[in-house]
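Researcher: Can you fold this with iron/sulfur cluster in place?
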Amino acid sequence: MTNLNFLEKYGQEDEPYVCASCGNCTLVCPVFRDLKWESYGPRGKLHIVKSILKGESEFDENFASKIFLCNLCEHCTSVCATGISLDRFWEVIRAEVRQRGLMPRPAQFVLDSVKSRGDIMWMGSADRLLWMEDIEDTVKDRILKPAKIAYFLGCNVSLKSQLHDVAKSMIKILEYAEVDYTLLADKEVCCGAPLGWAGNFEGIDEMAEKNLETIRSLGVETVVFSCPSCIQTWMEYSKYLKEENGIELVTASQFINRLIREKRLRFEEQPLVTVTFHDPCISARVLKVIEEPREIIDDIPGVYNVELTPSREDTRCCGSHGLLDVVEPVLSSRIAEMRLRDVTVTPATRVVTECPRCILGFDLAKFTTGYEMKVQDITQLVAESLLPKDEGGDLER
Ligand code: SF4
Ligand code: SF4
């Protein structure tokens, strides 16, 4: 019998036995939807764990690679008939995969990069300044300036040129609304999300200490994020560092929505745009940020939102979460294609979302499918719709 005592360490030892085999999880799993083999779906994987516990299967490389064929999208967890927190379970199994030295190499590369360079792409802190090119004069006085509000970009938005416009759009919004904000710039380090996805829970502490040290030194009270996975990971920081419970963590859409309600943003009429909002898994199922982006879209004159099916808490994963995009990029992209297919049956010409991974996944899927729709972050849609100040954008403040 294979020793799986590590499950007890994380309070997960009963999970394989409380599964009622109903199959709800399998029906919603994007990996099962593509691969169509029971053993790649969540119910099948739980059964494999049970057979490992009985000594009928091995905890080997084959099993380890299957455990990484998962987006950690929380969809299985949200529909589980017996309330198993499946995402946590997969992370705990991944921790054991790491302990046994069976990590898929691309995932190991990301872990080594976060540990050595503080980011997901082996780039280093100086490269976190590159997105500021063109707007250096606007932001130079914001870098490490003491302020109550901080904008945390995350690795993808900071380092991938394809996403730099998301950060520039957020700066445009903050400046327009005259928000007193600060940027962590080259002192920002990876939030640690990929470490958690690979079961290196202790590694998150290290990233938490570095990011929180900077935040504390600047007197920050609210942190605004462009990436929902960063917030989810920062929520773990509070668990490790109780004294940080006072810091407010908000998504870009929550913060922008607040600025609109305070009448600090004004929009100009857009030339009839039909969009559809794709709920990122973590925003909808974990953070429950569902209405805020829709309210923002409704506030922009000339922009109309049509609902995707499925959406909100039933949203489908874009395929890029949980390290699947690095471990199995082709499968990840096929999952993104499936989600874009949902968009093609709507009249929308544009998909708006609020997660950098969704944007990267959809951009690649657009390339492989030839779909012509535009993919945008909510921040970009807001920034391009602002009424110029000299046309009345600064009235009624
Ligand atoms: S987290 Fe998502 S991808 Fe992973 S098993 Fe559950 S439904 Fe499937
Ligand atoms: S939804 Fe829950 S109870 Fe049903 S098969 Fe999946 S893990 Fe088991």
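Model: Folded with iron/sulfur cluster in place. Residues 16 and 130 are 47 Å apart (CA to CA).
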